[in-house]
Amino acid sequence: MIILAIPICILGLFANAMVFYFLCSKVKKTKFTVYFMNMIFADIIVLLYQYTYFMLFLKPTEVTASVSNFLELTYMLAYNSGLYVLTALCAERCVLVFFPIWYRSHRPKHFSFLVCALSWIFSALVSIMEYFTCYPRFYAYLDEDSYGCYFQTIFQIIIFLIFVPIMAISTLAIFIRMKQKVRQGPPAPIDVTITAVVIFFLIFDSSVRVYNFLEYWYDALGVPLFTISVLFDAIARGIDPFLFFFVGYCSERECDPLEVFVERSLQDERNRVEGT
């Protein structure tokens, strides 16, 4: 699985870096661009960690404890942030789709930046707490059966059961509204992009998280499921840029530069028509 995951990591890193550059300098900024920028940035960090981890596994190299600790903590920070930012994106988009007038009159300025910043701060707090209570990989004295590790695992499950349903229900509502308005014209590309991103998140990323929770209580799950989760984690972090390219291409069916595909995949046709 690691042999399969390495080229996926490399391709995903290249594609994510390209999309991140487009979002920063080429693509017209919207209310939702900052969410996608933060998601892509988190994916880049996770993919960098995975590639480093895989290469160290294939070719063992001495790494200092401080470097190992930094890599693990950075990975958890980006891993958790991706979930929180994507959930915030889906929730805000759902509010805009169903309550456009209220949304435009009550949305605070720079709301997206504030939400993303809070997501990273919350992720940092959760990751630090998780690392020092329930990560025995580098600290022999940490016990997975300790009360701290037990309550931390329960806390992570609660967070998962709060954020993922919000994400899924918001996306389902967006999809239903999108299908209801199909007679009025093609759906907004950003709605298609969000739906596709969430579907693949639920298939690949969520399955890895569920495995991690189950493995805490059932060690018998063992290596086979772990190796599959390694591959799924790599796919989950590397697939988003290709979804942007695909949705952007399908919106017009024209061979344009890649940055045009990315910009097109994040367009809200209704907002553009209304001049906002």
UniProtKB/TrEMBL annotation:
Domain G-protein coupled receptors family 1 profile: 15-244
Compartment(s) where it occurs, according to its Swiss-Prot or TrEMBL record: Cell membrane
Alphabetized UniProt keyword annotations: Cell membrane, G-protein coupled receptor, Membrane, Receptor, Transducer, Transmembrane, Transmembrane helix
Membrane topology: Multi-pass membrane protein
Family annotation (PROSITE patterns): G_PROTEIN_RECEP_F1_1 (PS00237), G_PROTEIN_RECEP_F1_2 (PS50262)
A Pfam family assignment: 7TM_GPCR_Srx
Keyword Transmembrane set for record: yes
Membrane-crossing residue ranges in chain numbering: 6-24, 36-57, 77-99, 111-133, 153-176, 188-204, 216-236
Name of the protein described by the UniProt record: Proto-oncogene Mas-like
